[in-house]
Amino acid sequence: RLYLLLRNGVHSLKRMVAPAPSTGGSRTLMEMMIGHNTIPLQSPLYRQGVENFSANLSDILQTIHSRRVPVLVGTLVSNLADLEPFESQFRDGFREKDEWSALVQQGQDRFSAGQYQSALASFQQAAQLDSMPAMLSFRIGQCYRALHRYEAARQAFIRARDLDVVRFRAGSDFNDVIRTVCAQQQVPVVE
Fold it and tell me: How many helices, marked H, and strands, marked E, lie in the chain?
């Protein structure tokens, strides 16, 4: 819903600033992606989404600039610490799932018992086997937060969001695009 709201808002803004002719039957990237349940980080479809976002943002800012309309662009926010990843994925060819799952279960049991340092150690052992599942980074972040290591927690939560293969939250790459495109076009960014 958030995507649709943003998309419709951007399209309305584009029409207000410079009416564009209809493109007929063309589909948006989101419409093409609906058939994909998951989009792994740095997959071709993910990279295409980032590239399209960059091109669209650049086009919008150029249009706004050509009309001499002042603009600020904000980075995208997301709930990092309170929203678990929707879906995780192991790295290709990973075969030690039973050992990994046992370590994660051990970490979860220790976390539930308030043994945060010990839980962190279990999760870190699992990460040595495979660090790609988003949920594992999220659990590590929870341990760091419980241990009052807030910057480490923030980094783990960011990694969890970025590794989540269900793309309802924009990953770090999208904020990097905002900062880069805005710097190129001398547009202020609100963090």
Answer: 8, 2
